[in-house]
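Weekly puzzle thread! Below is a chain. First person to post its structure in token form gets bragging rights.
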Amino acid sequence: MAERAGIPAAKLEHINNGINLDGFEPSTLPNDPPVLGYFARMCPEKGLDMLIDTFILLKQTGPVPGLKLAVGGGCQPSDKMFVEKKKGATP
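Winning reply:
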């Protein structure tokens, strides 16, 4: 992300989001097929374009059989063109 934002990595600090994970257990759902999930505003500023491009590359090269992508979240009017363009992208 530092490279994408044009900020030297030395000037960045990782801050956890503050969720206490005590009491949460790993999912008992099967890991097959593997699913990449994204739930945030659907815009390039959140890195969705990079995720979709990477997903397509993984599907084309086949290192993760059955890989799926699940995307959800809000969309501002200014994001609609981006979303429509990415909907047309194919693996």
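Puzzle host: Confirmed. Bonus trivia for everyone else. The helical segments are 2-5, 48-61, 80-87.
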